[in-house]
Amino acid sequence: MKSATSLALALAAVLMLGPATTLGESGNAADDDLMAAVTQLQLALELQSEILRRLLETKHFGPRCPYPFSSAMDECFFVSNFKLGWHESRRHCLGMGADLAMRTQLFALRIFVLQEHFRSGYIWMGSIDEEAEGEWKWLDGETIDEDLWVDGQPNNANGNQHCLLMGVPQIPFFYDAVCSSANYFACHYKRGGSETK
What we know:
By secondary structure, this protein is an alpha+beta fold. Helices cover 32% and strands 18% of the residues. Strands 1, 2, 3, 4, 5, 6, 7 and 8 form an 8-stranded mixed β-sheet that branches. A hairpin with an 8-residue loop joins strand 4 and strand 5 (137-138). The protein contains 4 helices and 8 strands, in the order ααββαβαβββββ. It has 2 domains: 4-57; 63-189, Mannose-Binding Protein A, Chain A, CATH 3.10.100.
């Protein structure tokens, strides 16, 4: 069997000879070997191209997230390494073309936070009850599942806890908190635009 170098040299020779020489028509054994080598090389390249095309079409590689977002379970997240109040956190997310993370990606977010950022702490999430006390809804209008609240929460301590915090690594993991308190926050970038309605 010819080495890869020999095949490359043979292919170069064929290309240099150009259309004046047609392989396989001379009846020469060397020409026939060269034609077979070129054919094998073409088939191998076609197979490699097809494999690469299929790999690029799979979701295995996850979504392409714009900077500074990172991919986790087909979602794009940004978790701050600095603390802001809830309203400032939301403005920051909106300024990045995203919004505070909500219900549709809670477990992907938890995995991302635990693996990539920190083992314990609190993160602002996309829910607030400032307009109607005790009516906890996500920013998209959906009601929060009561099973996600830590025992005794929400409690609206001192009558001013209106913003949602996710505790990491607790399960259940939601707390109500004073909106002006400084905490880390999680933004979710929805490919195709912000996730707010």
